[in-house]
């Protein structure tokens, strides 16, 4: 039976969505792993999103429910930062997982994190760090990428989002898109956590 890896994200301007796509591609390279993209429900009204200049959400990525989350063997969660923490839309989704918490349905399952921030000091590490509390209460196993990506983690000449916690990008004013290096880190993260999810399920 295939290992189910769910890449669940919230994206307002498309940056997190782009990283999610690359993570899915990386995960798909691991034999026996089925990687699926999901987005969480938007909580802002359309009128507010229009004023904020947010583009339409992808029609090709389904909106996940808390119950569907329990079907996965592993996860990669992605979200933009809001003052150094995950966006409220993703937090609202996690707040709806009380039933899964009560039964510890997610306990023992691996989970990674990826982020998007507006600037270099905007929370690349703190957004991931503060999200770990959500994983801990569910009993999930946090899987950081560490420095497994290799030399690219030490790149100093090119602006690069991401950290030992997971892949990341800088959105700036919204016009900046993930670079090839940032996408490469995302691809690596997908492949890395997919392999770990496969090992964990195989040893269960």
Task: Please provide a brief summary of the model.
The chain is of the alpha/beta class. The protein is 36% helix and 19% strand.
Descriptive terms for the model:
seven-stranded mixed sheet, 36% helix, 204 residues, 7 strands, single chain, alpha/beta
How would you describe this structure to a colleague?
There is one protein chain. The chain is of the alpha/beta class and 204 residues long. Helix content is 36%, strand content 19%. It contains 7 helices and 7 strands; from the N terminus they run βαβααββααβαββα. The chain has helices at 15-28, 46-51, 66-69, 88-95, 98-103, 126-138, 180-202, and strands spanning 3-9, 33-39, 74-82, 85-86, 110-117, 141-142, 168-170. Strands 1, 2, 3, 4, 5, 6 and 7 form a 7-stranded mixed sheet that branches. Strand 5, helix 6 and strand 6 (141-142) form a beta-alpha-beta unit. Helix 1 crosses helix 7 (180-202). The longest helix is centred in the C-terminal third of the chain and has 23 residues, at 180-202. The protein is globular and about 40 Å long.
